[in-house]
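re: ur question from the group chat, yeah i did fold both. here u go
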Amino acid sequence: MRDAPKKQWRGRRPKRKNCAFCVDKVKQIDFKDSLRLRRFVTDRGKILPRRISGNCAKHQRLLAESIKRARFMALMPYTVNQEQNFVRF
């Protein structure tokens, strides 16, 4: 019997993102730095996953903890105001 040809991977393989915190050699992520934390939150208020943000596992855990602390201290919102998203005619 003949071996079936291997399927070739179709599509573009995206360039691997480097962890922004490893590049800056950050040891701790400060929850009071809300401008930096906002880069890793969607417009709906959800924390971006690792595969999209490009963080390493260690810094992704620290980032999630810092975002949750900032939310608790009212430095960042848990969710966005729904009225802002609707277009009124």
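okk and heres the other one u asked abt
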Amino acid sequence: MATIDDCPPGVTYWKDIRPLFRDSDVKAMNDVPAGKVHLDDPADVAAKADLIHALVAAGKMPCDHKWPDDSVRLFACWIQQGKVVGTKPA
């Protein structure tokens, strides 16, 4: 996981994390019969953040491509900074 020195300040779900999930990722994870992850719900993403991080870091999520290292690091930073939700865009 990224160290605090590698992290930009003020990482939030709405500003930084939600844009990492494509709409197709959100739909796919909402349609999983067991173990749904609501990627469009900051509370659900925060509750399952360690699992999500492990999957994206291993290249297992999303299923059709690997996240760039910078995106995986940004997600780790969000976890380390307390999983701040921030303000939902209008």
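fwiw on the second one: The chain has a mean pLDDT of 89. The helical segments are 13-17, 23-30, 42-47, 49-57, 69-80. idk if thats what u expected
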